[in-house]
Each structure stands twice: as structure tokens, then as C-alpha cells.
Amino acid sequence: MAAPTLGDKGRGKYVAVFLQLGLMRTISAFQDGLYPDMQALADLEIPVAHTIECRARWSMALRDSSASTKMQAFGRAIQTWVCDHGSLRLAQLFACLPRLAPAVARQAVWTHDFKLVGSLHDLIDLRTLPDKLVDMAAQRNDFEMVTYLNVDIGHMGCTSDAMDWACEHGNLELVMYLHRHGRPVCTKNGLFQAVSKLHLDVATYVVEFVQGNDFQDAIDEAINTTVPRTGRLDVALHLISLGARLELYAMEAAAASGQLAMVQWIHANATGDRNDPDCLYAPVIYAAENGHLAVVEYLLDHFCATNGQLDIMYPNAMHAAAGAGHIEIVQAIHRYTNDTCSMTGAMDIAAANGHLEIVQRLHAHRPERGCSQRALDLAAANNHMDVVVWLHHQTIPFTTKAMDGAAKNGHLRMVQWLHAHASAGCTDQAMTEAAVNGHLSVVEWLHTHRNEGTCWYVLDITASNGHWDVVQWFHMNRPACLGSTQLLKLAAKSGHVKMIKWIVAHRIEGCPRCGRLAAEEYRYPVICHILQAVPRSKTRECPTCGTLTDALFYAEKINPRICQGHCRMK
């Protein structure tokens, strides 16, 4: 007997049910895993936001640039996704990937996206986030966003960093607003930044907030390090009236910026022995390096008047001028010396930096005391072909450091020229350094034309630096090149999600627990999640982790010390 079938009318009823708006989305909500449109965001690592205290420990410009680059990359990915799928889908995204909710909130504040901030507040209530969003808005000098977060949303994420940022930007209106609303006042860093950047109205307003040693430290640092660069004598005098202590080392900042009048004033008025040659060494070097001839001549005149010949200061001053390519300063310094002074060091550094004219002039003056081998090696490493060819014609011999250095810096044409014209060759450092710096074309050429090999650590450091294409090349072309148990740890420290996933899938080296602990310490949750799921394997684990029980092996041990130069704004 044939099985019963649905007629067209009955089939239409079932089809209509399954075509109901939202039904398939409701069904899929009960499935494990991620929606296809969220897969790419699952591998998106959350950028680290640095506090002022963290930033001050390292290069300020480097930290700000790095933070901005990472926030922009994260923002592009999120904005593209929102444009494609709409802000209404954010609720589902945060349900699947909860870690993205605060990260997207920070991104919205960073980019002045009021519409997205409002949508996020409706979804997750920004008052519940522990993030310091007011600090971030102040970092961006976004007064409008600060007031919106403070008044419309009532977000309490604010520390003294907010007013410090406002001081640095010279935003008196924002400083006063934060003060009136009872937010934490600035630290000595805020006062220092306000004075250093000549925001005197801000400095006058906040000076009462910074007391005792902090106040003294701020004005002392400003008058000796940043104000001299500006040449603003009026500001320096104002700081002295507040009790700032002017030291002779302030000449260094003034000399580096070519502020001759400021150099002369500091030299005449600062505390210390102005006839001590030690106080002139650094200013002369900074002035010579930055091409400030008048400052160099003033300092050398004073030095020679009180100390006689310049011989003891000559090498560093000449090296600075020659290395920076300031030939008129090279000539000026030479006028203060006798004929017994060596030119070799100056010629070497000029060659290393590609200043052929200076090399030729110094060589013409003292041909019997020419460049050393170091000059040729450094010129090659820095890809100054005209200098290399000229020195080669002077019969200066190469060493292996020439090709090693050129390979390290990715200068393939120089490597090829040295291969053809120099018999010294290279060492295993050539391919190693080319690899760890991501110069795949150099690695491939050396693999084909040389046989020196690589150092044992090449795969570890290359992975740590995120050069995925180079790691893949070694995997395919030099299978005998192995990583150590530190492979995953080093890659995890740098936050390279793609690299971590590839190593787990294609290599047997690298201890997952060491990698996970590094990711926890440096706050990379995606990498933590990936490595937490890696099965145990004696071939992967380091000797310490290999002896642990499963409970200890998989235990989360997040280091409470957030900042080692890698803090997240909390």
C-alpha cells in the first residue's frame, strides 16, 4: 500500500510555517557554535589601551601610534560587520562573543560614534562596564563624548587620567568640567604636560591640585627637559618664580632644538659648575647631531676657553655631526682640533649612514687614517650602495657582517652584489635575521644560492614576530628546522591569533599551557580560548607542564599585574 502523501494544500501549510519571519533564527539560536558571519570576528584580538602611567614608561609617541593603529584595525573590522549586518544584530554577536561587548564600546567612544554608543547602552547598559570610558574620551580630547557619558549615560569610568589627558591637550574647558563634576583631579603628569606644551592657562588652573614633592617634581622636570626646547624664557622665569630648580643639564634640551639664547641663559644662570667640561659634552653632541652650527660654536668656544684643546670632546662631537650628515659642523669641529685626532670613527659612522660626501672629504684630509672594515659592513647593512662601491674601490676588505647585515635589513640587491663582489660571504645569521624580520624574498634567495643555514631559534623568533608567510615557507622548504617548546609562548605574547591557529594545526612544537599563560598575562582572550582547547600531548609540552595533572594544566592563572608595558584600561 502506498505511503500517504501531502497534497499541495497541506504542503503549503507546512512551507508557510517554516517561512515565518524569525523562525529559522530562533531554531539556530539553540545550535552550538558561531554564525557564519561571526567567524571572522571570533579571531579578532581586542586592542590594548594604555594608561598614562604605562605610556610614560616607554616611548610616548610609539605607544600612542601603536594604540591608534590597533584601534583603527579593530574599528574597521567592527564597522564593516555592522554595515553588513546592522546594529540590531549586535545583541546576537555579544551573546555569542561576550568579550566583544566592552571592546566595541571602547571603539565607539574612540571614534566619536554617538549613534553606536547609544545603541550599545540600550543593549548592555554602559554603566555596568568596568572600562574607563570617560578616560578614553578625554584621551581623544572629545569633550562632547565626555559630557554625554557623564550626564546622559551616567558612566562612572573615570580616573585622574581623564584630567591628565585634558591638561596634555590644553583643554581648559574639559579640565574645569571634570573638576566641577567631582571627577579625580590631575596628577603631577598633568601639570608637567600643561607646562611642557605651554598650556599656561591650564597649568595655572591645576597648579593647586598638585602639592608637595609632586608639584616640585613636575616644575623641575618641565624647566629642565621640555621648556628649554621651546626657547620660551618667559615660561622658564615663571617656573622659577614658582620654585623650579634650573640645572645645567637643561642645556641639553635647548641645544638639541637649536635655542642658542636659551642655551646661553641656562649656562649663565643654572645651578652647578659651568666650567666643568662634563656639562658641555651632551649639549655639543645634541647640537651637532641636529645641525645647529651656532650652538655648536658657542659651546666649543666656551669649552676651549676654559679647558684648552678639544681633543677629549672631539670624537663624540665629530661622530654626531658626521653621522647626521652635517658637513659644515664637521668642518667647524675640525677647526678646533689639532692634526693628531683620528678621523676613523667619524668616517665609519658617516659611511654607515650613507653620507658619501663627508666620507670622501675626511678621507681626502687624512687618507692614511681612513675607514675601518666596520664602515663597509655598516654601509652594506644600511643599503648605501654608492658608499659601498666607493669604499670597495679603496681596497677596504669586507667581512661576513656586511652580507649578514644586508640580509637582516631585507636589502636583497645588496646581498646579491656582495655575493658577486665580496669573498667574505655570510654566516648563518644572514638567513636567520632575514627570517625573523620577515624578509621572505631574501630568505628564498639565500636558500637557493648559499648554504650557511640558520640558527636553532629561527622558527621561534619568526613566529613571535608574526611573520606567518616565512614560518610557512620554513615548514614547506626546510622541514628539519624545528621550533622549541617556547614556540607557542612567544607567538602568544605578541597576540598573533592567525599564527597560533596555524602552529596548533600544522606543527608539533610549542607548549600550549606556556602559550596560554603568556596570553593571559598579556590579555589576549582569543588566544587563551584557542590554547585552552588544545589536547594534551607529551611531544608538545615543556618539562614543567608535562608533569602537571589535568586540573593544574588547564587551571586559569591570570597574572593580576596587568601592566608590564602591556596594560588594558580597566
TrEMBL record:
Quote the gene name from the UniProt entry: Aste57867_3420
Name it: Aste57867_3420 protein
- Lineage, highest ranks first: Eukaryota, Sar, Stramenopiles, Oomycota, Saprolegniomycetes
The record's annotation in InterPro entries points to:
Ankyrin_rpt, Ankyrin_rpt-contain_sf, SecEffector_AnkRepeat
Q: One short Pfam family name for this protein?
A: Ank_4
Task: Write down the SUPFAM superfamilies for this protein, in alphabetical order.
Answer: Ankyrin repeat
Query: Source organism's superkingdom?
Result: Eukaryota
